[in-house]
Amino acid sequence: MERTWRWFGKKDKITLAQLRQIGVEGIVTALHDVPLGQVWSREKIHELREYIESYGMRWSVVESLPVVETIKYGGPDRDQQIEVYKQSLSNLAAEGIHTICYNFMPVLDWARTDLLHQNPNGSTNLYFNYAEFAYFDIYILQRPGARQEWSLAPSPSPTGEGRNILAEADALAKTMTPEQEHKLVENIIIKTQGFVSGNFSENDKEPIEKFRRFLELYKGIDKQQLRQNMKYFLEAIMPTCDEFGMDMCVHPDDPPMPLFGLPRIVTCDTDIEWFLNAVPNPHNGLTFCCGSLSAGRHNDVPALARKYCRRTHFVHLRSTDVLPNGDFVEADHLHGRANLIEVVRIFEREHPDVPMRVDHGRTMLGDSARGYNAGYSFHGRMMGLAQIDGVIATVRNELGR
Ligand code: DNO
After folding, report:
1. Which atom of ligand 1 is nearest to the CA of 360?
2. 3-state secondary structure 175-232
3. Phi, psi at 194, each rounded to 5°
4. Which atom of ligand 1 is nearest to the CA of 102?
5. Ligand 1 contact via 251 beta carbon (within 6 Å)
6. Ligand 1 near 314 CB (within 6 A)
7. Which mutation among 64, 193, 248 tests ligand 1's pocket best, with the greatest number of atoms within 8 A of CB?
8. Using one digit for the tens of pLDDT, what is the confidence trace for 88-139?
9. H-run or E-run covering 44
10. Are the C-beta atoms of 143 and 152 separated by less than 8 Å?
11. With 80 as the cut, is the pLDDT of residue 161 above it?
12. pLDDT > 90: what percent of the chain?
């Protein structure tokens, strides 16, 4: 596997010179300064590519070339936006960049409630707490129907018993301070979405209002319709992908379940099989994000890796622990549900040239003072990379390479 690293461009506090020292071979990045829905110009791509190459690395993967909402919900200007997308693809191809990560999650990209969850050893991790999430949905967003939906939601605990999320959210409402509420809005909308080139930015004055407007756009869009819209998009761009050799790889939904009454369509084996078969072109592929998939108890990550390694164009190595109450926390890279040791074994055997990046990392050893993007610490990710490097070396040794 090619060792890559997600780098957020020249404004990233982590420099390419540092990355080279820790064994990174390829860079995963995007034109973060181009507004959503605009063509990525060849000049800008060229400039960033040359900058990366001047440090002895290559621009391996684009993460993300965002798919704007109108394509996802099938708005009146979706064809025009698909043309914009195709133009960006051909400009990237002209600069020799052929692997494109994107997602098809409506409104919100990834979701966490706590970005600084304390570990016993003093480091911190990302965490998803169902009760806090439901509190946000019912009490902050005040989404119509939210209370009713949470009252019907099954308990997320592995036994399916013992947890009433609505009651927990109501209990939180009695103790939640304005500061805690503010933090939750920051965590769910601002700090996790702001840097991923999605719908929200750090400068949004009224993020809740904005969130509600986005939700409105999806009225009447169910799982079947969202699937059809994904198929429409993929079919429209495949001729460009064929012409220029572009590998599209959709990122699984994180966490792999519907949120805010919105459908999510890349959550499990059946979903993956559906979109791969719906557009059976090898350029229509997957970002195999072990972390996102492992947060769903329904997913057996190594089994999925075995099944889909050939249609995978990019791998995210990360793991989670689903706790007895159903909440999940990001595990270190050698432990947790994802079984990354086995996943590395599968990809090294079946698809050894696939780019992989160590995804997320603990915040540790002074990372918190540096203000890195949530999940994208330096020391934590570097430690994850070192652990994965050891696994890769061991597996290659086993394979006699
Ligand atoms: C979060 C990331 C996601 C991912 C996008 C891909 O840490 O894994 O934001 O980059 O969903 O489009």
Report:
1. 7
2. HCCHHHHHHHHHHHHHHHHCCCCCCCCCCCCCHHHHHHHHHHHCCCCCHHHHHHHHHH
3. -55, -35
4. 12
5. yes
6. no
7. 64
8. 999 999 999 999 999 999 999 999 999 999 999 999 999 999 999 999 999 9
9. helix 42-53
10. no
11. no
12. 95
